[in-house]
Design a protein that fits this description.
The protein is α/β, with parallel strands linked by helices. The protein is built from eight helices and seven strands. The mean pLDDT is 95.
Length: 260
């Protein structure tokens, strides 16, 4: 059912996004990769994924802070592949600081990349999905879209906003065979989380191992990191016909974190 569908996944050259791209490609879904980084490495990744799975894979490095670039990324995907059936808003950045010391430029960047770009991508993708009579929108949020943590005011605000956007879009599209859902992972061992470990250690005056034990995994009753493959498997399910009645949901995959 998913074979030959087309997916655009923002922030998909590493971490959760790359895990999603690999699993989607294994399902026969053509993939538009997106991310920042060294062009040669991105091309190596694109080529290896295409050769491994046999699907079409392209790449773009659009700046998600610019609405026109986001809309252009959607348009390019539709032009190259002929459609855009699955949109995954995954890109994110993080900064850890006390609210009174939070740099304004970091606040704005987090809102732009996490929340605003998701809105602009959805806005651009929905008309084509409506014409084709089918679509799946998945927002990779975070447990921080459901609960808060200290020193993450910008991230928590953006992720809470993304959950609200998910619910609104789901209601608007409920009668046209387009679903919109949020996946809310706990701590997944990704480059983004690795960066947080060092920042949290500095902010809290703890060692890296203490941050993992006493701050990061203390929030998850299972006391283990979430695996990228778990997120990818749920995303694939949400794209299938058996999930056609799941829309507007914010689904935790957090080891029990938000059950407290």
């Amino acid at each position: 059912m998913l074979s030959n569908k087309v997916a655009l996944i923002t922030g998909s050259t590493s971490g959760i996004g790359l895990g999603l791209a690999r699993e989607f490609a294994r399902q026969g879904i053509h993939v538009m990769l997106h991310g920042l980084g060294e062009p040669g490495e991105a091309e190596r990744l694109r080529k290896s994924l295409a050769e491994e799975t046999g699907v079409k894979v392209s790449y773009d490095d659009a700046d998600l802070r610019t609405p026109e670039k986001v809309a252009g990324l959607v348009a390019k995907t539709e032009q190259l592949f002929g459609s855009l059936d699955i949109l995954v808003n995954n890109a994110g950045i993080q900064h850890v600081a006390a609210v009174e010391e939070f740099p304004l430029e970091r606040w704005n960047a987090i809102q732009d990349i996490v929340l605003n770009s998701s809105f602009h991508a959805i806005r651009a993708a929905v008309p084509g999905m409506k014409r084709r009579g089918w679509g799946r929108i998945i927002n990779i949020v975070s447990a921080h879209g459901l609960v808060a943590s200290p020193f993450k005011s910008a991230y928590v605000a953006a992720k809470h906003g993304l959950v609200g956007l998910t619910k609104t879009v789901a209601l608007e599209l409920a009668e046209v065979s387009i679903t919109c859902n949020a996946i809310c992972p706990g701590y997944v061992r990704t480059p983004l989380v690795e960066g947080q470990l060092e920042a949290q250690a500095k902010t809290r005056g703890l060692s890296r191992d203490q941050v993992i034990r006493e701050v990061i995994l203390a929030a998850q009753p299972t006391r283990r990191f979430i695996e990228v493959e778990e997120i990818a498997a749920l995303a694939v399910f949400l794209c299938g016909e058996q999930a056609r009645s799941i829309t507007g949901a914010a689904i935790p995959v957090d080891g029990g974190w938000t059950a407290r």
